[in-house]
Design goal:
The chain is of the alpha+beta class and about 160 residues long. The protein contains six helices and five strands. The chain has one domain: Gcn5-related N-acetyltransferase (GNAT) (Aminopeptidase, 3-Layer(aba) Sandwich), CATH 3.40.630.
Length: about 160
């Protein structure tokens, strides 16, 4: 897909109908292939997670829709805090772009759209993490204005 083909792209909240497309993007990844399942039928845990996210006003899944198909996805969570004088922050997670659409500008469109959403919600900053080994992702996030100001840490419980 080239940039001209992406001109009809629309950023919208994901629906339950998007789950199969979203999971296909999540599993088409070195890490995702190890931890996600795209069985038919899909495990009910995915539908339950989608429903929980959709019911929470501080969580949304956004997709880029091209020709009635979700081809990019991320989760945006807004978090209240005491720091920044009680300011809210936005956390971006689970960013994926369908392999055939990478380099088309759709990831940039999605990230810039949710940055605008976070700004409109009064967030004072937007944060995300990415694996240190993902040089292309790091370069992409820097190109849309993010800076690596912190050292992130995770503790996997499962």
């Amino acid at each position: 897909m080239n940039r001209e083909d992406a001109s009809d792209a629309v950023v919208r909240e994901a629906s339950g109908d998007d789950l199969a497309s979203i999971l296909a993007m999540l599993v088409d990844d070195v890490r995702g292939a190890q931890r996600e399942r795209v069985d038919d039928p899909l495990p009910t845990s995915y539908r339950e997670a989608h429903d929980t996210i959709s019911a929470d006003p501080n969580n949304q899944l956004y997709v880029v829709d091209v020709d009635a198909k979700a081809v990019a996805v991320l989760q945006l969570t807004t978090i209240p805090g005491l720091t920044y004088q009680g300011g809210w922050r936005a956390q971006i997670e689970g960013v994926r772009v369908a392999r055939a659409c990478r380099g088309s500008g759709l990831g940039r469109l999605l990230i810039q759209s949710v940055i605008d959403i976070a700004r409109d919600r009064g967030c004072c900053l937007v944060q995300l993490t990415t694996e240190k080994a993902r040089d292309q992702a790091l370069g992409f996030y820097e190109s849309v204005g993010f800076t690596a100001t912190h050292e992130g840490m995770k503790l996997h419980l499962v």
